[in-house]
Amino acid sequence: GEDVEQSLFLSVREGDSSVINCTYTDSSSTYLYWYKQEPGAGLQLLTYIFSNMDMKQDQRLTVLLNKKDKHLSLRIADTQTGDSAIYFCAESKEDYKLSFGAGTTVTVRA
Amino acid sequence: DAGVIQSPRHEVTEMGQEVTLRCKPISGHNSLFWYRQTMMRGLELLIYFNNNVPIDDSGMPEDRFSAKMPNASFSTLKIQPSEPRDSAVYFCASCIVGVRDTQYFGPGTRLTVL
Question: Across chain A, what does the average pLDDT equal?
Answer without folding.
Answer: 90
